[in-house]
Each structure stands twice: as C-alpha cells, then as structure tokens.
Amino acid sequence: MLKELHTASLGMLNTQTRLEVTANNIANADTKGYKRASVFERNLIDSKASLFNHPGKLEQDDPPVGSYIDWSTRGGYHHTDNPLDLAIDGSGFFVTRNASGDKFLTRDGSFKLTPDGFIATYDGKYLMGTDDDAIRIPDYMNIDGSDGTTKKTAVNIVVSATGDVLANDVAIGTVQIVDCENYSQLTRIERQSFIADVDAGVKQVAEDMVNIKQGWLENSNVDIITEMVTMIELQRAFEAGSKVIQTNDNTLERSISTSRFGYY
Q1: What is the mean pLDDT of the chain?
Q2: Using alpha carbons only, how large is the chain's radius of gyration in Å?
Q3: Which residue, 77, 109, 121, 140, could crosslink 86 as a Cys pair with Cβ 3.0–4.6 Å?
Q4: Over 50: is that where the pLDDT of 206 sits?
Q5: Half-sphere exposure of 52 (CA within 13 A, CB side)
C-alpha cells in the first residue's frame, strides 16, 4: 500500500511541475521573443530513491521532472512600423546591459530611445554594439521628445539587415548579435532575458551572417490552444492522483483501526 502511495506522489510531483510550466507558457503567450518551456522526465528509479532518501543523482526534494526551453520552434513575426523594433531572422540574441554592468541575452527586440540618447529595452537595459559598448545617439543629434524630453527635430534611425545603425544618415554603431554553442547553459532570469554560463560558448555572430528586420518584432513560440488543452489534461491527471492517495489513505486508516481493535 505504501508503494502505491509513493507511486501516486511521484506522479503528482510530475504533474505539478508540468502544470507550473504550462501555466507560465500561457501567461507569456503574448510576450515578445518568449521561448516556451517543456518538461522532461528524469530517471524514475533515481527519483524514487531520492524520495526514500537513498543516495543518488538527485536531491531528496527534487521532482522527478525537469524543464527545458524549446529553442527549435521559432515564433512568427509581425510588422510594427516602429524603427526601434528589431527582429532577428535566424538564430542568435541581442546583447543588453544593465546599469550595474551585467549582460543579458534576449530575442525581444522592442527598444526605445532614453532621454540621454541610448537605445535601450523598456526596462532600462542598454543595447550593446559590436564594440561591446552601449549604442548611443551623439549629443549633437536631437531626440524626439516622446518620453518627456523637449521635442525637437526627430532622429531618423535606420538599422540595416547586418545591424549597422545610422541616425540622420550618420553611422553610430553596429548592433551586436551573439549565438551560443550550448543553449542548455542559458538560464532564464526574466520572461525573455537570459544569462549565459561560462560553458555556453557565447560568440559574436559575423556581420555577414546577421539578418535583422527593422520595424518587426518576433512573437512568442507558444501555441496557446495546445497549452490550454495540455492544462486541462494535467488538471485531470492531478485530480486522479489525488483520489488514488485519498483512497489508499482511507484503506490504510481502516487497516490500522482494525489492527488496534484486534490487539485490544
């Protein structure tokens, strides 16, 4: 009977993780550049050994499943007419940097101009150029005051397919695009931003291999219908596992009561 309880509990741990991953995918179906997460099953024997606190590859509290990111399926693209919306046609990532100097990789190419002329993400990370410095419109060029600055002559920003950035026909830098040899060494720290482990093998993509679409954004690769169907199936599986545990618990309770009655 204890065996059935442990088997059911392992199944519910599996289902719970799948539910969490699926719910997160649904929540980010409209997030630009988001890559859906999937779930893989670890070795069931190792998982059960961990549950019994036996030595093994997993920690005792680790669930019998893990998640990975679906890099193979690319999201579609949609046109925005915004010159600071960029999409990578192919593999690779934009490189951004926060005020502390930490670098991040992202497929989300929705950028804006800051009041001091930097091209940045909407949460304030600077877009990096191939010179490993933030791309910035020089002081002698005027910026459209859409975010509170004084409205002057608007800057005409053009980003070529190879990433060259021109403002009012003046070259100011080249967008840095990088790719990784080992995608499994990327850790998602936000919905669409990643940090790379030292073993990720991050390398700058050669300019002639870069293909950037200005005025476009990459959609999430989440299929909302598939995720909703999966969610319903998982909820039913979780309920079934809960009923198995409840049934075995009731049976065990009756057995204990019977044993006590017979003893006395």
Answers
A1: 81
A2: 26
A3: 109
A4: yes
A5: 13
- Compute φ and ψ for 53, nearest 5 degrees: 65, 30
Q: Residues 204-232, buried b or exposed e (16+ Cβ, 10 A)?
A: ebebeebebbbebbbbbbbeeeebeebbe
56 contacts: CB under 8 Å, gap ≥ 6: 46, 49, 50
CB 142 within 8 A of CB 115: no
The secondary structure element, H or E, covering residue 138 is none
Phi-psi region of 131 (alpha: psi -120 to 50; beta: other; left: phi over 0): alpha
Note whether 165 and 174 are within 8 A (CB): yes
**Token pair recorded at residue 116:** 């001091």
CA angle 208, 213, 216 (to 5 degrees): 165
| Count of other CB atoms within 10 angstroms of residue 253 | 10
- For residue 196, what are its two tokens? 């790379």
H/E segment holding residue 122:
none
What percent of the chain is predicted at pLDDT more than 70?
A: 72
pLDDT bracket for residue 173 (50, 70, 90)? very high
The residue among 9, 17, 53 whose CA lies nearest residue 38 is 17
What is the reported pLDDT for 262? 53
pLDDT over 70 (residue 64): no
- Report pLDDT for 68: 78
Distance CA 242, CA 92 (A): 43
